[in-house]
Amino acid sequence: MEIRLEDFSTARIDKEEIFPPATIDQWLSDYDGYRNYGDIISRAHFTRRNTNILMQAELKGNIIGVCSRCLEDALIPIDTDITIMFIPSSQQKKYAEDEEVELESDELDVEYYKGNRIDVDYLLRESLILAIPYSPLCSESCRGLCHICGGNLNRGECTCKKENRIFSNIKINLF
Ligand SMILES: [Zn+2]
Ligand SMILES: [Zn+2]
Questions:
Q1: Which ligand is nearest to the CA of 160?
Q2: I want to staple 27 with a disulfide (CB 3.0 to 4.6 A). Which of 40, 59, 125, 145 is the partner?
Q3: What is the residue range of 56's domain?
Q4: How far, in Å, from the CA of 160 to the mean position of ligand 1?
Q5: Are 45 and 55 members of one domain?
Q6: Whole-model pTM?
Q7: How many domains does the chain have?
Q8: Neighbours of ion ligand 1 (CB under 5 A)
Q9: Distance 66 CA to ligand 2 centre (A)
Q10: Which ligand approaches the C-alpha of residue 144 most closely?
């Protein structure tokens, strides 16, 4: 998704972009076991004031990740918001000195842009990565792996003795 200064015939522009599975896989290529689960949709609006552009965007869809308990696929819903103020890089120094602007955008993330064109895909990708939970689960009731034989307990009991498994669990938690 990109925005150009000359696109602003009014102060506000709404944009929607559907990121196809291939793009999502590319975004997730640094993360083993993570991949697309269909399209991810971004709806954004851009508000321009002089050369400053405020982007408010949402990112919605699903991806597949790795369950932190059983290491199988976990469906991860993505529903995240992004608010960024774009400021021309020529204003970077001025911006730092200008208290008024600073107050206005106190809670805002600021990015600097060059030229007339802002490509926001790298920020959308970053938001997707940040939206991934620390410990994804395939299901709230996932029973995980047996710490002795590594068997997936969601597929049924393994042959390890239950009490051994409990002790092994305790050991893992202690050390
Ligand atoms: Zn699981
Ligand atoms: Zn076992």
A1: 2
A2: 125
A3: 2-141
A4: 19
A5: yes
A6: 0.81
A7: 2
A8: 67, 69-70, 138, 142
A9: 21
A10: 1
Supply the DSSP symbol for 159: S
CA dist 68 and 36 (Å) reads: 18
User: CA 38, CA 27: separation in Å to the nearest integer?
Assistant: 13
65 to 72, 116, 135: CA distances (angstroms): 8, 37, 10
- CA torsion 110-89-17-80 (nearest 10°) is -10
Which tens digits make up the pLDDT trace of 5-30?
888 888 899 999 999 999 999 999 99
- Number of helical H runs and strand E runs in the chain: 5, 7
Phi, psi of 88 (to 5 degrees): -60, 140
Ligand nearest 146 Cα, by number? Answer: 2
Please indicate, yes or no, whether residues 117 and 174 belong to a single structural domain of this protein: no
Q: Are 104 and 119 in the same domain? A: yes
